[in-house]
Design a protein that fits this description.
Blueprint (H helix, E strand, L loop, with lengths): L16 E3 L8 E2 L8 E2 L4 E2 L1 H8 L7 E2 L1 E4 L5 E3 L3 E3 L4
Length: about 90
């Protein structure tokens, strides 16, 4: 049996991931596969998803997780740190 957790407790928090978008710009994508996302307050916003939504596709431009295309792993936005901020 496996247990799925939301990462809100220290015991199940996701390990911090440092993203350098200058080094690997296409590695980090929104859940819909777009690399055009930008960071905002406490989540990311994807202009490609926004355009799709405006054209009738049932997607949301705001996301609280990022996908690592290299590993296929989904990373909660709260665990994301940016190299330029360090």
């Amino acid at each position: 049996m496996s247990v799925i957790t939301d990462g809100s407790a220290m015991a199940d928090a996701h390990e911090e991931v440092v993203i350098d978008r200058d080094d690997e710009p296409y590695r980090w994508v929104c859940p819909n596969g777009h690399c055009s996302w930008d960071r905002t307050n406490n989540h990311c916003w994807c202009p490609s998803c926004a355009r799709q939504s405006e054209n009738g596709v049932d997607v949301h431009p705001e996301h609280w997780e990022i996908v690592d295309e290299k590993t296929g792993q989904t990373i909660p936005y709260a665990a994301v740190r940016f190299a330029e901020d360090q």
